[in-house]
Amino acid sequence: GDLPPHLRVDELLHEAYGRYRGLRTGTVADYIPALAGADPDLFGLSLMAVDGEVHEAGAVAAPFSLQSISKAFVFALVCEELGHEEVHERIGVNNTGLPFNSVMAIELNHGSPMNPMVNAGAIATTAMVPGPSAAERWEHVRHGLSRFAGRPLTLDGAVYRSEALTNQRNRALARLLESYGRLVEDPLETVDIYTRQCSLSVTARDLAVMGATLAAGGVNPLTGEQVVSAEVSRDTLAVLASCGVYERSGEWMFEIGLPAKSGVSGGIVAVAPGKGALGAFSPPLDDAGNSVRGGRACAFLSRALGLNLFASS
Ligand code: GLN
């Protein structure tokens, strides 16, 4: 089926906003110093249907860095370029059951980065982005993610510099993959591109457009552009379903029943295939690194709008 009628969707989106706006649980990420100062009260919800219709409440135009949500869209771009087989073989698609920056996940799995939605797997995915130089590979990523958003995305320089100075752990993950022969590309150059993709500045509205593009089989509802194929959109959503919210992915699927991706700056995109996507932004996170208000809003709206993929009606 489709989404409920426009007015009903609008009403429910505002209800979700009103319900969770006052929620005071969660902590703003501070391991990247530039994120620590985010306003914990910010909360925005933007829902875009595959036909381009939009519903919004709260801080939908407040900028924040894309962080781990970039992993979903870089994965889609790499899948489009290199194919399903190659990413399955080189990266993997199983949940680690461990935090997003886990070294143990690699060690326990004979050097496999495990999946593209944790840091190691995302770094290995970014390494597969084609291009003759680091600058061109970065431009390829920025341009590709901009096509998902339907507008040119730019780097948040302060977040980029802050993370570049404090990302020793990601550099270590890349070196560890290299030691297992799993990263043949230049590890530090690759981590730099990964850090840049995480520092792209977006809004909740951008997340809704990016997610709606996956919901619509790769066609951006704003621009009409076919960004990736329908098969790649499907494969990306499958990986989000199993790995998108890290070690919480099982609970998320059990409670919400929608593929989603979160990032430490407080963004979440949840996708209802064939229907649309919700972009949520609110900085306070749970202990797995997922936005608390964003998760609650997704759960409420999945139920209220009848979006759970496993429901028979
Ligand atoms: N840039 C962040 C990191 O690599 C992204 C992590 C996240 O959003 N979970 O640590």
What features would you describe in this structure?
The protein is α+β, with helices and mostly antiparallel strands. It has two domains: 164 residues, Beta-lactamase (3-Layer(aba) Sandwich); 130 residues, 3-Layer(aba) Sandwich (Beta-lactamase). Helices cover 46% and strands 10% of the residues. The chain has a five-stranded antiparallel β-sheet, with helices on both faces. The protein has a two-stranded antiparallel sheet with strand order 3-4. A hairpin with a 4-residue loop joins strand 1 and strand 2. Helix 6 packs across helix 10. The model has no long low-confidence stretch (mean pLDDT 97). Bound molecules: glutamine. Glutamine binds next to loops.
Topology:
Elements: H1 6-20, E1 44-49, E2 54-58, E3 64-65, H2 69-82, H3 84-90, H4 104-108, H5 119-126, H6 134-149, H7 157-166, H8 168-179, H9 187-198, E4 201-202, H10 204-215, H11 230-243, H12 249-255, E5 260-262, E6 267-272, E7 276-281, H13 292-304
The chain binds glutamine.
Glutamine binds at residues 67-68, 100-101, 119, 163, 170, 198, 263-264, 289.
Q: Summarize this, please?
A:
With 313 residues, the protein is α+β, with helices and mostly antiparallel strands. The chain folds into 2 domains: 6-66 and 202-304, DD-peptidase/beta-lactamase superfamily (Beta-lactamase); 69-198, Beta-lactamase, CATH 3.40.710.
